[in-house]
Amino acid sequence: KLFFTDYGSAAKVERCDMDGMNRTWIVHSRLEQPTALALDLVNKYVYWLDIYLESVGVVDYQGRKRLAIIEGRQIRHLCGLAVFENYFYTFNSDNLSILRISRYNGSDVQALARLDNAKELRVYQRRAQTAVRSHACEADPYGMPGGCSHICLLSSTYKARTCRCRTGFILGSDGRSCK
After folding, report:
1. Domains in the chain, start-ordered, CATH in brackets?
2. What is the mean pLDDT of the chain?
3. Secondary structure (DSSP) of 49-113
4. What is the pTM of this model?
């Protein structure tokens, strides 16, 4: 799945398949400017940072079990959001510090380091990565991902895929080659 935010005419947090199909709103009320997302891959939760409402919220992958984790002025200058174990990691653009915040109640805020001009951050750790099973976009014997000549996108399951073409090309009638 692909998770993303939109705060155009109607603010929302959405999810879709990697090929863009099955687009679903998972948060669409009490939301103004969702600017960052973080996923808890193990427990299947989506966290978002709303800088206008000065809050961090959470829902499960289906948009249920909504909770406000943090509310208040300390959110105002945050950008980027990552989650690992019991903490959020974010960047305060006002004082240029990387912060660690308890993801269960918003307490235990600790500045870890200063860093100029950051806008986003990610946590890379082996335990934070899910195991990869074989999938429909694996390279075929000719080295083409999922048998697609340009781009292979996973669809509704790891066994299904959709081929797409780079800009300027059109997908052929076989659904795999680009012309």
Report:
1. 2-128 (2.120.10.30), 131-178 (2.10.25.10)
2. 88
3. EETTTTEEEEEETTS-S-EEEEESGGGTTEEEEEEETTEEEEEETTTTEEEEEETTTS---EEEE
4. 0.82
